[in-house]
Structure formats: structure tokens, C-alpha cells
């Protein structure tokens, strides 16, 4: 009987959520399993992974074979590195305390990288939000300027339309007055 460390899918369509399990290779993907080692949520950024590293290392030492994705997860969380360090302890290259010290240092550096990524994502999100607000402010200002220009043009056109009408009206009154005077002179002459 071969034992695999693999993912068991849960979650709805388009929103996967996985359990990391140890199962018989003949069992169905989402079927019976021997032990649950942790969870993996690929939807979050960065992906959420909770893993019992000691159990995973014990199963690896017992001969369980991880699938490709499970191997990547085990590597990411340090289970494969811890197994490697235990191999060094077994060969006598260094003692158990040194192995734990090295693993602790590796975990700290890994956590720092993950925190750096989270901070980078949050600053990128805030920068994108600022840029979107600035672009929206520019668009709004352009819209206000265009409306003001259109209003000014309409007012100028209205004044231009009224100005010739006034000039025509003064010309008409000027032409009417002489005719009235001319009529008056004609009446006096008659």
C-alpha cells in the first residue's frame, strides 16, 4: 500500500479550498484519508497555508510520497528542509540543537519575506487607490472646465445675438425718426 500526501478539494465552484491529507493512493481524491495535516487556501494573496510540520516530516520519513503541489507546499512551509536537517543529525554532521537553530532562522527569514510581500501588496493597493482618485479628480476638473467654457460660449453667443438686434433697433428708430420729421415737414408745407 503506497501512501500519498496530497490535496483534498473543498469549497464551491470557482472558490477552491484544500485540505492537505495523507491518504492511500487508491482512495478517491476527496475520499477517505489517514490523517489531515493542514489546510491550503489559494484564493487569498498570499495564499493561506496552515501545516503541521512535525507530522508532515514524520510521514515523509515513513515513506509517504507527496504530489507535485503538495511537495511545493511542504517546501514552502519548511517540512522538506526540516527532514533534510534531521538527515544531517542522523549522519552526525551536527546535533539536534543546531538543527532546530537553523530551522528557526530559516522560519524567521521566510516570515520576513511573507510580511514584506503583504506590506508591498498593501502599499501597491493604496498607491493604486491614490492614483485612481487623482485621475478621477482630473476628469472631474476637466468636466467642470468644459461646462464653464460651454456656459461662457453660450453667454457670448447670446450677447452677440442681442447686440446686433439692438444695433438694428437703433438703426430702425433712426430711420423712422427722419420719416416722421419728413412727414411733419410735408404737413407744414401743405
UniProtKB/TrEMBL annotation:
Residues 168-190 have a biased composition (Acidic residues). Keywords: Ribonucleoprotein, Ribosomal protein. Residues 147-190 are annotated as: Disordered. InterPro entries: Ribosomal_bS16, Ribosomal_bS16_dom_sf. It holds the Pfam family Ribosomal_S16. The keyword Cell division does not apply. SUPFAM superfamilies: Ribosomal protein S16. One of its GO terms (cellular component) is ribosome. Residues 147-158 have a biased composition (Basic and acidic residues). HAMAP family: Ribosomal_bS16. Belongs to the bacterial ribosomal protein bS16 family. This is Small ribosomal subunit protein bS16. The gene is rpsP.
